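job 3f2a | input accepted
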Amino acid sequence: MKQPGKHSFMLVIILLFTGSAIMAQNSAIVYETKNKTTMKTYLIEREIPNAGKLTAEELKAASQRSCAVLKEIGPRIEWVQSYVQGNKLTCVYKAENEELIREHARKAGFPANTISEVVTIINPATAN
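job 3f2a | predicted structure (128 res):
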């Protein structure tokens, strides 16, 4: 398997700085767009060696590449935010389906090692 390039690493990291938080609890995570398109929420794990050591410039470049691909694909997929960890990124996306997540990863040059649909979000308020 081909290793992702340095720019791929940057794009993934930048993604986490430009998104917005999901606010929901105890409910299915499904969104509708203006065109009545159903959007599901997905968590994507991207294994990227030394992701936590990427510079601000590298992250910015990665984010710009991701956003360019998102614009190309269209309104059926949206990047919410990403979390940079030592050797991976965990990204939150809204999309019509999992294939759009895979298409984005291919076109942007990022790994998508694991893609999981979010069914429900819980938080401390769930305990009440």
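job 3f2a | Residues 56-73 form the longest helix (18 residues).
job 3f2a | closed
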